[in-house]
Amino acid sequence: MVERAHVTEPLLAAIENNAGAALILMSDASEACSRFARAHDLWTRSHSRIGSVEPELVSSSAFHIRLAMQHHETFVSARRRRYFDLCEAGRAIVALNSALAASRRSDGGDTRNADDDMIAPLVSAFGAHSVEVRMLLGTADERNAAYREKAERLAEWPVRSYLEGGQYLASVDLAAHMSVVLPLSLSVGDTANESGSGDDD
Prior knowledge:
The protein is mostly helical. The chain has ten helices and no strands.
């Protein structure tokens, strides 16, 4: 049994974000906004905590271990930068989803704008051609393929070992990759397709 204590802020943020995305697909934009607000707060708390967590020294060679020990501060800074990027990506996903929920709640709209500043954290953390960017900006076919790819990736992820290991920074990595971002434009037809996308072979 995995203890509740191992469900960290970033993992809870991913849970709240994904619940909010599901609520948008079920046309409950008001509750979705509440979920996204909680997710944003959790990611912000996680971002503040990263600076006080010592990154693990993981290397396949004695040479790299010695190098990291000799340049400890540089090593720690570089490792933390990766987790800060993942945290920023998590917050950006929440902000993008929240903008869609707010649009739906205010006027029933299904489109929201995203400038480069909102998309840049996803590119920095995941890459310009990543699943997350394709989920956001791709065509309907590209989005469906990206959702399937993300689901397959998560099915292979050693989630239980992350939770049982109790490693905070590892949970940041997992949570960022768990988080679902909805496309910039989501029509009624898209809503039905995204809700049932997991049924396709």
